Amino acid sequence: MYKRVFLLLLFITAFTFIVQPVSAQAGGPVYIVQPGDTLSFIAARFNLAVNDLIAANPSIDPNFLSQGQELVIPGLEGVTGVLETEVIAFGDTLRSLSRRMQVPDDQLKKLNRLVSPTELYVGVGLIVPVQEGQNILTARVTPAYGESLLELAIKQGSDPWSLAAINKLGGSWDTLPGDVLYSPTEGSGGNATGLPSAFLSASIEPLPMVQGGTEVLQIQTQEGVSVSGILVDMPLHFFPANGEQVALQGVYALLEPGVYPLLIEATLTDGSKQAFEQMVLVTSGDYLSEDIPLNDPSTLDPAVTEPELRQIAAITKPSTPARYWNGIFTIPAVYPDCFTSRYGTRRIYKVINSDIEIPGFHTGLDFCGGEGLQIFAPAPGKVVFAAPLTVRGNATIIDHGWGVYSGFWHQSEILVNVGDTVEQGQVVGLVGGTGRVTGPHLHWEVWVNGIQVNPLDWLNQAYP
Ligand SMILES: [Zn+2]
């Protein structure tokens, strides 16, 4: 009897001691003040009134918030630990994040007030509760078609019960081919994301995407895996470089800002496929807008402009596996920093004495300087078009490889032939006023996988 009471007392005492240090957070989970934080910013982040935040933290001085200070966040029933920010990586979904961080997905939704999966785009910061001493799981496994959890667990040196519990699988332990599961064993290397296991790493830059920008996708896979994908609605073309698969993709200048899908698919050596889809954000390029009065609307007659645009689009469509360029592009004009019109400018052609408005945008970069000035190849490549066109005048198109092309319009003279290989800086033609122009000038445009992009990006940075 005494023994029992003693044990009970011992138990209570032990319990009290264990509970004691935790009682500091009795009011809720803790947020650690980050550089630049203010009380109102933190309150807004957790959807609280500032006064409620102050009331939950009576010991803090609201006027002197210091970095590293711990704040109790009230009103988050059932949530414990330290509230940290986890930036959504390429390949993350709510499910993979929930599995990796071992937090129920409804708690993640509630904490971040998520109402739609489109809010989970790459680069967005989510609040995630992390428990003390918790290990973030990094080993990813993807079941093959028809593979059972038991088979998968044996391969991982784990057991099906642990895998089911970690990954919140139902009683049947059904796995889905291509699903990303986390295993308690050692990490498989690469960065810890929600990517299927054939992917070692994946990145897309820059983020957010910008209208008229050039996106670089770099993917590392397990040996022998081939990669394909779709960004917005454009099929991606991947080429091997430095142990990675690289794809370049232009972002259409008139694409409405918002979130768009990115789909990446890996084909394994046995022919099976693993894929993931991710939302990415497209932001405005902040391009200027100008109205252009037009006397004669026939100059924009689609019967003339459409076939010519289709012709250019067909020439710039193939993705040549060779990459001819290396490093930053050089300026193709004599006057390097002088532009009469930049890429992206919205152009609304207003037909005089009518209500007709034709929207468009400037697809390239116009340089200062007129008739007879030399035009230089901005990068090495192969001439794939050199002939007169109705709208663009004397036109030359150079293939730089990997789906990247340069176009030069309105020339007075073309100095290269189709099939020529050109070096960076080589004179390819002379400036003129041929085609539909108001005066002689060089118009240079850059196409990246079927889309005209901002050429200035190619003059300012080296693409891989
Ligand atoms: Zn132009």
**Span of the ends, CA to CA:** 78 Å
Which hetero compounds are present in the coordinates?
zinc ion
Tell me, rounded to a whole number, the average pLDDT. Answer: 84
Topology, number of strands: 29
Could you walk me through the main structural features you see in this protein, from its secondary elements to its overall organization?
The chain has 464 residues and is of the alpha+beta class. It is 18% helix and 33% strand. It has helices spanning 2-19, 39-45, 50-56, 94-101, 105-111, 149-156, 160-166, 302-315, 455-460, and strands spanning 30-32, 70-72, 82-87, 125-130, 139-141, 181-183, 199-205, 209-210, 214-221, 226-231, 234-236, 239-241, 244-250, 258-267, 273-283, 289-294, 339-341, 346-351, 357-361, 365-367, 374-376, 381-389, 393-401, 404-411, 413-414, 421-422, 427-430, 442-448, 451-453. Strands 17, 20, 22, 23, 24, 26, 28 and 29 form an 8-stranded antiparallel beta sheet that branches. A 5-stranded mixed beta sheet has the order 8-15-14-10-11, with no helix packed on it. The protein has a 4-stranded mixed beta sheet with strand order 2-1-3-4, with no helix packed on it. Strand 18 and strand 19 form a beta hairpin. The longest helix has 18 residues, at 2-19. The radius of gyration is 29 Å and the shape is globular. The chain starts with a helix and ends with a helix. The structure holds zinc ion. Zinc ion (ZN) binds at residues 341, 362, 364, 366, 443.
